[in-house]
Amino acid sequence: MRSHRRAERVSAWRGVAFAAMIFLLAGGGGFVRAAEDAPKAQPVGDPALEARALKLGHELRCLVCQNQSIAESNAELAHDLMNQVREQLAAGKSEEEVRAYLVARYGDFVLYQPPLKASTVALWVGPFVLAFTGVFALWRALRRRAREEVPTLSAEEAARAEALLRDTDERGQS
After folding, report:
1. Structural contact between residues 60 and 111, judged by C-beta atoms closer than 8 angstroms
2. Where are the alpha helices (H) located in the chain, listed in sequence order?
3. Domain match, 106 and 59 both
4. pLDDT grade, residue 11 (50/70/90)?
5. 112 or 50, which is more confident
6. Which of 89, 119, 97 is nearest to 107 (CA)?
7. Is it the case that residue 136 has pLDDT exceeding 90?
8. Residue 170's pLDDT band (boundaries 50, 70, 90)?
9. Contact call for residues 85 and 57 (beta carbons, < 8 A)
10. Other C-beta atoms within 10 Å of 101: how many?
11. Distance (Å, rounded) from C-alpha 116 to C-alpha 123?
């Protein structure tokens, strides 16, 4: 009886595996093809201009990934932004002008090194304030714990605890 149920389960899993394989071979591969067909950033022919564009691209945050620069990211928006950087540099704009254009459009968040100003003070000071607050709270908790007196047991309470522990040991051994 058990072997029959097991055979049914194995057969069911084989059916699921077969259906998944058919899906991947027939239609699932479209996901891979769509990712391969995504527009890539197009390097320019001038190596000096491309070096400037890549240098600036490494200073700008991908708005989709947020942990990569637009030069490193594979996101479609990052490719578009990288192409814009290349186009503007090719049109004769300076790196600072391109940076200012992107900041005006996307805000200081697009920069990996946002400038220190009233709207970004929290970004620069916040981590230090949080770290200091955490260290201070830990210091106070440890100090308070050191001051607390550990209650001592009376002779009667100690004898009762000893009896309970002995009973527990005897039950565990039997």
Report:
1. yes
2. 2-23, 29-36, 47-58, 76-90, 95-106, 121-147, 155-173
3. yes
4. low
5. 50
6. 119
7. yes
8. confident
9. yes
10. 14
11. 9
The stretch 15-33 carries a mean pLDDT of 61
Name which of 171, 52, 105, 83 is nearest 163 in CA terms.
Answer: 171
| 63, pLDDT greater than 80 | yes
My answer on whether 53 and 5 are in the same domain is no
How many domains are contained in the chain? 3
Residue 46 reports pLDDT greater than 70? yes
Q: Which two tokens stand for residue 165?
A: 């522990």
Identify whether the C-beta of residue 29 lies closer than 8 Å to the C-beta of residue 40: no
Retrieve residue 153's tokens.
Answer: 């047991």
52 and 102 share one domain: yes
Q: Which residues constitute the domain of residue 79?
A: 47-110
